[in-house]
Amino acid sequence: MKKLLVFFAVLFVSVMSSACINNFAIQELNIKAKEYLDKGDYDEAIKRLESSVDLDGTVFETRYNLAVAYVNKEEFEKAVNQLKEAIVINPSNPDAYYTLGVAYEGEASNRVINKFPEEDIETEGENEKSAETFGTGIFKTLEDAQFAVQKIDEAIEAYKKYLELSKIPKDSEKVQEHINDLEQDKNTYLKEIESASVSNPAQGNSIQGE
């Protein structure tokens, strides 16, 4: 499986001072978590950030940082959940939407077996490959293809929200190019689903009725 290549780095953010009785403890936990994250020890970083959330779940920076740690560990669904909580706390922070896009991409990527199956054609064992994969070999099942389309859609919307809130970000051109690439991926995945509906109408009708 091809793992997600993070298109821009997601950044850890510092906890700013606030009128919170547990603020100092939260600050210390976030600082320690950052040290562990820099070392690549994501489990220890997550432990500190989860403790910080337990102290006060309304601190945007802690929720966001926990999501960043989950993204680095490729636990994308958990990252999405934390980012949704962070966005409720601070819906105008553009980085939260950017990182949400990365997390949604990660969820989609985890369903991809081989993004470029045409580059990987082998005469030997070809029948075995066809039996074990769906369509052209990008996904294992039709359900995986549908899931990926949904997550790519969500990633695109998150990146668009990032651009909207960032106003004129220095990386806007690259983000837009990346959105265009995702649209192409989505179209490829939709073709996989369409081909399945043609080759197996009963299965396709079942999907459309879901």
Q: Count the E strands.
A: 0
> Helices and strands, in N-to-C order?
HHHHHHHHH
Given helix and strand content, the structural type is: mainly alpha
Overall geometry comes to globular
Main sheet attributes: strand count, strand direction, barrel closure: none
The helicity comes to 55-70%
What is the straight-line distance between the termini?
Answer: 27 Å
Specify the number of helices: 9
Low-confidence stretches: 1-9, 119-131, 203-210
Q: Any idea what the radius of gyration is? A: 20 Å
In terms of DSSP E residues, the strand content is under 5%
Average pLDDT metric: 81
Characterise this structure:
- Helix 4 (76-89) runs antiparallel to helix 5.
- The protein has helices at 23-39, 42-55, 60-72, 76-89, 94-109, 126-132, 142-166, 172-199, 201-208.
- The two termini are 27 Å apart.
- The chain is built from 9 helices and no strands.
Short structural description:
This protein has 210 residues and is an all-alpha fold.
List keywords for this structure.
single chain, mainly alpha
